[in-house]
Write a structure and sequence with these properties.
This protein is an all-beta fold. It contains no helices and 31 strands. It has a 31-stranded mixed beta sheet that branches. It is globular.
Amino acid sequence: MGLDSKYFSNLNYNKFTSKTQFSVIGKLNNINVTGSNIQGFLKNANGIADDSEEEEETNQKNKSLSGYLKTGVAGVNIGHEFKDKESLNLDFFYNLSDNEGTSNTKRINFSNASNFNYKTQNTYNNSSNNYNLNFDYKNKSNKNNSLLIKGKFTKDDIDYITNRDGFYFNDLNELATTNIAASNNKRDKNLGDINLNFYQRLAKLGRSFNVGLRTTVNNSSRLNNQTTLITRKQNTNSPTTSTIDAIRDEDFLTTTVNLNFKYTEPLGNNQYLKLETYLRNRTNNEDVHQSKTTVTTSAKDELLVYKYKHIENSTQTRLAHTYSPGKLNTYAAIELQELSRSFGVLTQANRVSSDLHINPIANIVYKPVRGQKYRLNYRKTVRNPNSFQSSTVINDINPYSIRKGNPDLNAEKTNAFTLNTVVHNFKSDLSFNTKFDYLNTTNAIIRSVTIDDDFIKTISYQNSGKKERFNSNISFGQKLKNIGLRYTFKNRNTYTSANSIVNLQTNKVKSTDIMLSLLLENNNKSTLDVKAGATYSTNNTTFSIENNLDRKYTKQQYFVMFDKDFTKKLSFNTQLDYLVFVDDKFKSNQKLPLWNATISYALTKNRSNLLKLVLIDLLDKNINIDRRSTINFFEETESESLGRYIILSFTHKLKGTKKKTKN
């Protein structure tokens, strides 16, 4: 417990026998801790973000560490081994979270017609209760076959309350429209997921088959109650007002069935022929009841009631050849895929489509010596538009963000290449890892945005052009024994190019992200642990329809950490982070130091009673910054965060096994 009614608690109980494991855990805190993480008070969103998560703009998701967060976890796990290689694991967890706070957002919107600024002041209170049951049964006791059964059952109760005051400014930076919205979004979600896999080795050496079945049922309901007060023509002598009260009650039922069959036939000389079949059926049912009342000089009522169904089937038959002589392993396959869809409102004629595709697949893995591995993958995939992208029904619950599907969309095709390298030199203790990904999507499903003179945004989708994405990850590190130092260097680069449509004009968006980091630490950590490092990341975003709005922002982070055991009982740890944010569009040049420290003292020699003082954000920089770029706007959000707090904790170990002394 600590100052200002702050608290943090953990409970762990574990019991182990030769056959059974039993564990109980409990966590409860109101200091913005999720899991065991107490860092990450400030996050930076880089690159082109897909704002599809904005199901309603007035219910935009908030960062988990923004504001004031209370979380709790209670769970039990039981594992039992019936006999050698046959076991069952079962766990049940309950999670709660309550997140409230305030934030301010600045947004620059643009189109080929005119640009405008948008500012919001937000308050939110989001709470959720989650129940999760998992089980895992494995039986590999028979050398000729194996059985795996996994299951998951979850229940989520979510309640989002959001108040948002929005202000729209025209291209002369005059206040033109205000949008005051209050919403309450309640969700009840139930999910069941069962996965079975059976493997059988046949009489002939190398001959086998595998059967898998996975079934998922997702049943959820959502009630959205929203009130919006709109005042237009604020910059004139005759402003107009309107109030919109809307209620949208939705029920969703999604079932997914996946069935796969694999057969392997040995051809001799380390060669195998594989026949693989994958069947997938996904059915979405949606039941919607929406009512809206718009009050201007008179009241106007609107009612929208419909039932919607979207069925997607995928059949993939794959013939593959593998070659595994030892150091080299190859896999080459040709896949025949049939995709079909049927969707629409139940009282209307269904839209039906069916396509046949041929997809090549190839993998090469080379392991020349111990500590080295090289992998090259290629695969072509075909993805149908999802249900909301192709929906025939307009969603206008949010009067300033209307969503409209396109039932004429076709599937998009992606060619993906991946190259991995893992090298570790045991003599020099040098580790080198790389990963390169390149994705090229044709007939891409892209977003189309139109914005009218009243700042109302309508989002739809089209097949247009291609999307490209290139990722590279490089890291290497080495322990320098002669000076007692280890260094680790990491570099991550991402390049994205995609089309979008803004007010009927094609907009080519390009985004480049670069991240460089260096970490230095000492080798001998028995009594002293010292770390220091720096991270530099930058994002450049360009738009073909607005050259003068190309954006660049950077984040620099420097840190030093010191951990010292002064005696066998007394330990001290401290870390100082220094962050610098620069954004050329919002003229931001913010510098943020974060300082944390911990002092612990063992009251007994065996450290079974431990007293600890935790000091977080000692400089009280209680702010969280989030930035992002989308296809037609830039955004920067500043949220209040927890700020400085101090916790005094006491840990008592009831009973424990003695650790073996290392030579």
